[in-house]
Model the fold of this input.
Amino acid sequence: MNPPEPEDRPLTGPPPDFWRNLRQELVAGRQWVDRAIVLAYAVATGLVVVGFTLLSEAASEAYDHGRSGDGPLGGWGPWIALAWTPALTVAVLWITRRIAPAAMGSGIPQVVAALDDAVDDKRRGWLVSLRVSLHKIWLVSGGLLAGLSIGREGPTVQVGAGVMLHARRWLSPNAGIDAHDLMVAGAAAGIAAAFNTPLGGIIFALEQLSRRRNLTHSSLVIIAIVTAGLVAVAFFGNVTYFGRLAVQQLDWGLFGPGLLVAVVAGLAGGLFSRLIVVSMQGLPDRFSRWRREHPLRFAAGCAFGVAVIGLVTNGATAGAGAATTRALLEGQGDVPAVYTLLKFCATWLSAWTGVPAGVFAPSLAIGAGIGHDIALLTGVGAERAIPLIALGMVGFLAATTQGPITAFIIVMEMVAGHAMVLSLMATALLASGVARLLTRPMYLELAALLVPRPTVQGSPSQ
Done:
């Protein structure tokens, strides 16, 4: 005898009333206005990122042109950089400290600090705002014009967050969209438009920016990313950041070199992250005391060191290093034997000056150098070295930022390396794990330095 049939019960509630929901959407006029405002600011974020990209690239090209023998400086260009780089660095730092102290550094720690619910609106507006974003653009470009080893991609996070946060003043009280959601959406849209990596922007928002609280409007983030990304694509085309990676068939012969790349990138990235944090915190040593008492002189000394390194490498260490990284990925890189070490030092010194500067893109260049060096060390041929270079990029970025998923997704999208998904993922996780043995997450530690102290009165200080 068959058992009785169970009583039929609906597994879910009644189906949605289509017409009722449609009427509610049509009569919700103010909600549509709020959505239009958010969409308009997403477009504005994309346009600002495009302008930032064009200005920063023009600044880098102007520096390269000036230091080369083809420029108006003639053959003395490289030597004049020894005076040009410190002088312009001091000018950028002086202006930053005077008019936009919140623009100092990468900008990602400022956004992380501003996302803390314990931060009041005054402090949040000091850390992230439209005014700071606009100043950040030309100050970072000034650092690139000086020949510092910095990037624009990290600062784009603060720029995008500041633009989107400005939309709050136009939204209705019942919009249900707060400052946290707007900043996350703008920051993610900025990083996505800067690298042309929409999925990477979403993962960056979830992994790096939303640790303190659940994201209540994930659709807002996606809409902002898509809109800003479409604006960027309209100007630059739908191309990957470093082109398409010519991946050869991966075999077990690359397992040993690939493992070595992950470990070395993890150690180097952890050391780099620790150096950045300690440099910003300061220690009871003469260099930290010099930086506190004479910040402009200290910045000039660091910039002079960057200029000397640029002279030794024939300018290869200046800027973000995207051209060198692309050449290495294409198997055409001809860099000095000490390029990786010198790029590491130049990026650290550039960040230590205190000028608005990102380390996101320079980290990719350092990682590419690690992969290239290990390929030479292990006797891997030029074509088979390309996957190792990509592994170095993802490994060093994951170790530096302590964001392995973000690093893996961004590098995969930047080089169209879908054939290396598992290898990139494994390298990012291993390198990040190794780096955690040396340091805590860099952006969280730097953000903690920006938390206001109760005893401080007057305007917030850096």
Q: What stands out?
A: Residues 455-462 have pLDDT under 50 and may be disordered. Residues 208 and 403 are 7 Å apart (CA to CA). The chain has two domains: 32-236, 252-448.
